[in-house]
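Sharing in case it's useful to others searching the archive later.

Someone asked me privately for the predicted structure of Cation_ATPase_N domain-containing protein, so I'm posting the question and my answer publicly. Question first, with the sequence:
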Amino acid sequence: MKANRGNKYRDATENKKDGKKDLNELKQELAMDEHQISLDELYARLGTNPDTGLTSEQAKTRLERDGPNALTPPKTTPEWVKFCKNMFGGFSILLWIGAVLCFIAHAISAGVKENPTNDNLYLGIVLAVVVIVTGCFSYYQESKSSKIMESFAKMVPQYAVVIRGGQRIDAPAEALVVGDIIDVKFGDRVPADIRVIKASSFKVSFLQIFGMKVEISKVLLYIIPRRGCICNSLLIC
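And my answer, the predicted structure tokens:
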């Protein structure tokens, strides 16, 4: 069953001071007991039924109230900043400095000599052209890769089996709301922060989180009062 933590996360992030906050303070703000209270109390608090789930009207109201079940996307770097990094970052800045020095040397030579050579001018132009071409090509490659990754992410939307009004339906993971009863079977991705209310030989793999194959068995009523150690929930803490 989907637990109510979206608003608490948003409150915790919005109250950050200067973008940084002590970890202990964040833990205090994220006080929760959905994994500790009894199931009957949990059903009453979330206004749901373990057999029939929420009604379509309840789900719609909660979705409008809490927003979609999705992480807030990180701030993206503006395109002009990416372009400038490719044009002036790394070794390119040295080539720009070399080109500018060549132009300065040519200007000094033209002011002192009657018939100056154009070697420094040509060298400066070549350096500038090389930097511009390589910078544009690097920006194009980076932009192309980013768009490909975005298209892949949109091609395979995640769905979950949820009980609404006593019927099992396939719903987008973003449409899940607090109090939804979700059916998770072998091979499924956990679509939200949930508490396990019924299970049979249920194990969860944390390969994508820890980078290694870690399988943890999930039980129903084993309640640990210590925060951060949750054995009856699938909460990413």
